[in-house]
């Protein structure tokens, strides 16, 4: 018995197979707070070895600091 529906599995495989490198696609548009919160929440729950979560996130909103 599976804990995930066919639609959920399909969505997961689509995300895996269509993943692309995004390092060259940055832009200066500000991300709305509700979207940023969802992204950071997902990142904090991402798997890591031994649940060590060895990452830090730095949010820089000031454009002069970014430059």
Structure characterization notes:
The protein is an all-alpha fold and 67 residues long. It is extended and about 50 Å long. The chain is built from three helices and no strands. It has helices spanning 6-17, 33-44, 63-66.
What would a concise description of this structure say?
The protein is mainly α.
Which strand-content bin applies to the residues?
under 5%
Query: What are the segments in which pLDDT stays under 50 over at least 5 consecutive residues?
Result: none
What is the CA-based Rg, rounded?
16 Å
Tally the helices: what do you get?
Answer: 3
Number of distinct beta strands: 0
Biggest pleated sheet: none
- Straight-line N-to-C gap: 51 Å
Mean pLDDT, to the nearest integer, reads: 86
Percentage of residues in helical conformation: 40-55%
Secondary-structure class:
mainly alpha
What order do the SSEs take from the amino end to the carboxyl end, as H and E? HHH
Sum up the overall morphology in one term. Answer: extended
Topology:
Layout: H1 6-17, H2 33-44, H3 63-66
Annotation keywords:
about 70 residues; extended; mainly alpha
